[in-house]
Amino acid sequence: MNGGGAFVLLYLVMVVFVGVSLLIAEQALGRYAGTSPYGAFRSIHPKFGFVGTMAILANFLILSFYSMIGGWVIYYLAYSAIAPQTLTAEGFELFSASVFHPLLCQFIFLALTGFFVWRGVSKGIEWGNRFMMPLLFLILALIVVRSLTLPNAMEGVRFFFAPDFSKINAPTVIAALGQVFFSMSVGFGIMLTYSSYLGKETPLSRTSWLIAMSNSLVAVLAGLAILPAVFSFKMEPAQGPGLLFVVIPEIFRQMPGGYFFGILFFLLVFFAALTSSISVLEVPVSYFVDERKLSRRKAVIVASLIITLLGTLCTLSMGSTLGWFRVYGMNIFDLFDFTSNNMLLPVGGLMLCILVGYVWKPKNVLAEVTQGGKHPFWGEKYWLFLIRYLVPLAIIVILVSGSGIQQIIESFFE
Prior knowledge:
Helix content: over 70%
Structural class: mainly alpha
Number of domains: 1
Order of helices and strands: HHHHHHHHHHHHHHHHH
Number of strands: 0
Shape: globular
CATH class: Mainly Alpha
Largest sheet: none
Distance between the termini: 29 Å
CATH topology: Hydantoin permease
Strand content: under 5%
Oligomer: single chain
């Protein structure tokens, strides 16, 4: 939709200038405060606690609709093994609009997420990632190899990397910026929460670059896993969710060895979804533990119950049960998606820039990042300029142009 390689290039530029800058800021604040986003922002200034509250709310909303998609992935993983012939466009419409199976799969997904967070950072989150991340890379590499060896696969590669600069416009830039927020987990407290567990010996600047590079590498590999296969079988790439749940199963049905690779593919997506949902759940859990003094297990139960309730509303909004309920033309799923991604994340990122760049003095920020000069921080002056001026300006562009505020105002006066 956004010019193939032109969008990839824009995204990578935004990763370097916006994503890394925000990652360093979040990690510095998180390690300095050693607590949840709410407590971290309050530790710099008591009036900034509301920014942490926004981050926690964003995680509740995101995991509510993300768990619905995670449930769909579980369903498709199971049916890829037992009845792949049912995974058609008609089957997807019937499944997504039904009640029992989507809710059951969503509850299973949330239960698995809660299990890893329940076990704690070392025994749960780290243990799970040590198993799932290497397996994710292995499966992804296998699918990339298979996709690239299909007939006419290079058409997909060219589409992915050859830039069509004629399609670069304001919405394309905004889309690239928004993708940086979501894919790099900045603006809603995830990296801040994880950084609260870091030791002083961790070099934050280098860690941020490693995160950015590995994240971008996985994104590129994912594109190489999907797009060559899509073009090989002459499917339409701009399908939204239908690409994952309609087009991809159809490709595997036509592909030699497709049964095996279909199971591998949805296993890959399941691991990717689960590791992400664990990170999202950890944010509200850390709030309940640090600020409300609940035990980790009680915090997991409370947070999971709230998310289950909100997630149920999202799932029911896809069918006739709650599909009639609309706010500015959006069902509950779209409303939660819009509120978190287009409003809370950019505002959270903007407030982070203000807090780190202006309220928390630059010398204090740099002292935390470098630990008094122990860790080199190349380009610290450039980073200060970015976090105080360029990144806030970019976020304001997202907020004004991408949030839909203008459309809402226009619809109000129509």
